[in-house]
Amino acid sequence: MRPADLESRGIPRGQLYRLVRAGLVDRRARGIYVATEHPLTAEHTLAQVAKRVPSAVFCLLTALRFHELTTQAPAEVWIALPEKARKPRLDYPRLRVARFSGPALTEGIETHRIENVELRVYSAAKTVADCFKYRNKIGLDVAVEALRDFSHHRGGATELARYARICRVTRVMQPYLDAIA
Q1: Which of 6, 78, 151, 159 is close enough to 125 for a disulfide, judged by CB 3.0 to 4.6 Å?
Q2: pLDDT digits (tens, 9 = 90+) for 160-180
């Protein structure tokens, strides 16, 4: 939580700082406080980033992991921001920023609630298309694995084709779609 969240619920900042001194609450990052016994999970890390960078959308490897479409465990949290947005500065976790614009930035965003924090994550189909668009950064093998997992578990060829057009990767993806089908 942030101090402002607690104040809106009637808990003064002074009480928060007393809880920190007593060891019941940890300061995880600037402005972010967590109960000491709270487990550190991948979802907690995403909630922490969403709280600190509300305009960010989780993308690429982080979104693949969220949708369980990869075996990769990214060392960084991948977020999408507009081309001219300032890169956020966080002590933890490490961020990897991908720049998007137009419909590639605004289409396919899903909202999920984890730890009482709203997460904005690209849909599974949009994430697969993004992986082909950013194949030079994440690796073609990761993009193909995501496409294979998506095709076997989710289907949705129409939705995938729509996002491939938006991300302008239809011709790149077509041979791999033909091979999987």
Answers
A1: 159
A2: 999 999 999 999 999 998 887
